[in-house]
User: What shape does this take?
Amino acid sequence: MNQMTRREVIFSAAATAAAFGLGGRLSFLGTAHAQTATERGFHRYNVGSIEVTALYDGMWEKAHDPAFIKNASVDETKAALAAAGLPTDFVPIPFTPNLVKVGGQIVLIDTATGGQTGGPKAGLFMKHLAAAGVDPGSVNHILISHFHADHIFGLMTKAPENKVVFPNAVIHVGAAEYKFWMDPAIERLPEGRRPLAKRAQEMFPLMKDKVQPFEGDKEIVAGIRSVDSPGHTPGHTSFHVSSGSDQLIVLGDVTNIPALFVRNPGWQAAFDQDAATAEATRRKLLDRAVADKAMVTGYHFPFPAAGRIAKDGNSYVFVAA
Ligand SMILES: [Zn+2]
Assistant: This one.
């Protein structure tokens, strides 16, 4: 449904309304609302007494590439996209950081592309943060899932300006992730990863007084714990947000777009540095979400990127909220 064009939505709303004798005015509020949320660029919901705001940075329309998924062909990829009602002429990879308000603290989880990666249709985050009424100076904490460009480039404006975007925030980073990317021996990394390590090594020393590494499973802010989730990167971290019996697992990049990697948890994206560990982590966290009836949000899930996971044999289904 969310991939229908506006014209199709209007047509089908009118057709359905006619069928139900509604005169076309009251029908399809849900669809109209969902479309507005993406256009508006933010979407608020609650986890118990905690307020979460999903913030849309835009979408990378990634060209098909046989190397993208090591154990699935481009045709299989297109078939999985089609089965989810997504376009098949490219891989649609959106970016959605979340802002969490808890106990008087404003916490941002990941920072979007900063318009410095992710193609021409990404880089809308700051505009949508403003639309949501949030001043960057009011952010107290930033939690980083991992150091890939689409998650950290929003911390700082482009070189040579290198201006810190959230001047009053403590930046919490996984100690293992920090150590991996900040190792001066960049030449031990695969060639494709070296420019990112180089940029991270330019950025983080400029924010040294703000960076706070954490280890393992730890309460970082009251109501938010880190969850060690390695594989996509060596120190990848997910976050567990809880209030009373309500919980939200912020998966980060434990899985990329659900149409491909929740449905096929064994598919190995080229982005996953250690594919076997990434799959084990993916299954572990998706199983946990099912067992705990927790909500999940994924950084590359279709906006507003929140919903639940259902088990389907040896695979899973993401059900958008
Ligand atoms: Zn990512």
